[in-house]
Amino acid sequence: MRNSPPSKSSSNVSIRVGASELPTKRKSTTIVGTVLGIVSALAVALGIFSVFIWRRRQTDRYADSSDSFLRMFSYKELKIATRNFKSQLGRGGFGSVFKGSLPDGTIVAVKRMECSRQDEKQFRAEISSLGNIHHMNLVRLRGFCAQGSRRLLVHDYMPNGSLNSFLFTSQSKSKRRPENILLDSNLSPKLADFGLARLVGRDFSRVLTTTRGTRGYLAPEWIFGLPISTKVDVYSFGMTLLEIISGGRNIDLNMQDSSLIYFPAWAVTQIQQGKTINVVEKDVVEAADMEEVRRACVIVLLCIQEDDEVRPSMRQVVQMLEGKMEPQPPQIPSYAFMDKHVDQSDIDSYGSYSHSVLSGLLV
Question: Which domains, ranges and CATH numbers included, belong to the chain?
Answer without folding.
Answer: 214-363 (1.10.510.10)
